[in-house]
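retry 2 of 3: previous attempt timed out while embedding magnesium ion. Reduced batch size to 1 and resubmitted. Inputs unchanged:
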Amino acid sequence: MTQALQDTGARAPLTFDNSYARLPATFFARQTPSPAAEPWLIKLNEPLAAELGLDVEALKRDGAAIFSGNLVPDGADPLAMAYAGHQFGNFVPQLGDGRAILLGEVIDTRGNRRDIQLKGAGATPYSRRGDGRAALGPVLREYIVSEAMHALGVPATRALAAVSTGQPVYREQPLPGAVFTRVAASHIRVGTFQFFAARGDTDGIRALADYVIERHYPEARHAANPYLALFEAVCERQAALIARWLHVGFIHGVMNTDNMTVSGETIDFGPCAFMDDYDPAMVFSSIDQNGRYAYASQPGIGQWNLARLGETLLPLIDEDQEKAVEAANVVIKDFGERFQIHWLRGMREKIGLTSVEDGDLDLIQSLLSTMQAGKADFTLTFRRLSHLAGDGSTEAAFLETFAEPAAAKEWLSRWRQRLWREMTTDTERSAAMLGVNPAFIARNHRIEQAIVAAVEEADFSLFEALLAVLARPYEDHAEFTAYMQPPKPYERVLQTFCGT
Ligand code: AMP
Ligand code: MG
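retry 2 succeeded.
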């Protein structure tokens, strides 16, 4: 640690072990963060810092310097990772961390290796024309949404800190600058594999695949074909992940291959959003004009992205490329079924079913189409159904969610008939449903209000309040009732923007 910290007798706040930095030089570019003028710690995620085994007290004191990039702790080996990617279907052979710098890796208190990355700490060799900086708004958005996802039980990168730089960034207008500290199981993307494939660097792909197996999928090493097993394992985690997104009404917004991890964590919260009214065609992203990444398109896009990953692995899967293609195709075709299994299992839980019947899919789909026709709020519908499962007197509240309550009432009677063949009691069913159907999601208008207050008034109280509500999404809290509500017509946010 620095001299100042040694003098105070404090132990180093982070202990690094940087395995990525030990990979071949083609994998990254070493890059020191650029200093910030007047860093100020907006938020330190203390429970996460403790989970990572960091010295929370030292970080409270020195977090502004460390998480702005002004103070590079001993043992850090800052670098920008190389990657490529398909952006909206078009292949870009070189992207890379243009505004992100990996400080290093720590082993958390559960023994898991985690990346600590600064986002917005200055330019890197991959910045192209970008400034490597981040504006406060997108930093707060990523902080809120990643923590909300985690609290919902959806695998996601985490927010460790947000720091204000005291310096403007120049977009269409000057905006307050900030740095976001992100924690991930790793930052390896489908696009990382594509980077080496685009260069015909089979040794690079093999080194990366071996590294990913070691770090994320050690069981694949013992499979008959480890690289095919790796591919299957990534497909399985992504199938499970995307199903979870759909269960909570989440729209990622930019499912480019460079924004898809191989670990199965949600990453790169840019123009993402949770939907209010249920609409499978919903898109929020200002840059997604053709609706490529609409809510219901996400499983298909996930499969498309994974096919791109499969292509990069072909030289490792079999020397005979025809056989390799055949084997990879089987895995890719299975993705649809893998996804469907996860999705249906979760949807059954959402409507309180513990047994499995053929008609369940139809029952679920009929609820979804009734919601769509009735412009029902996705989150409120399932939350109210969960209460209704245990207390019949709340039926009116459930029906109110629909513009056309008659159809919803009809669906309820179908649902109740199905429940006769369930073994669970009403009380058990309601409790289980309340545990999977959140009361609180990171509603877009609330995020927007928190960002506006922070950016325009340097008022972080809405940001803090929202984080507190979203930390326990499955518990009813009378004082938070307003946070359950969908936006009023004048509060609706129809578009979200990229972090740049
Ligand atoms: P994203 O849309 O955030 O997934 O980023 C796509 C690519 O643009 C990545 O290579 C980023 O590193 C790069 N990028 C985004 N914003 C900036 C910025 N402000 N400065 C430099 N590079 C950036
Ligand atoms: Mg990205």
